Amino acid sequence: AQNPLAIQDVDNEVLQEADEYLRKHKILELFEDLTTILAYKQPENMDAFLIDVLKQRKLNGNRNIVYSDTELQNIFTLYDLKGVGFITKEQCREALKTLANSEFHYQKAQEIPMGEKVDLFGFIKLCDEALGIKPQ
Fold this sequence. Notes:
By secondary structure, the protein is mainly alpha-helical. Helix content is 69%, strand content 9%.
């Protein structure tokens, strides 16, 4: 008969290795992102949509980032401390870089063309163009 403690040790080791793998490759974050995108987009053909999203991620690190309108407004307001209704080009670029969640998006935030002053509508548009952020 096998020693029950030896079986338990093997089980614990397998679980530990699985946990390390999930953490190392950020699998839980991936599924959380995919679930968020699915809930937001609600595609008709979920399988094809997920395949497309994963292909996009593989090509360019593209991760759709989902923020509510209120969250984007709050971020804009943090940079528009005087409440003048616009932020400078530099402030907008800093805000975009703060929101970037990959090197790909960070580069796009640094390079995207914009005017000297950016209002809230323009900021939300730039979030979408540079980072793929879709306000809810």
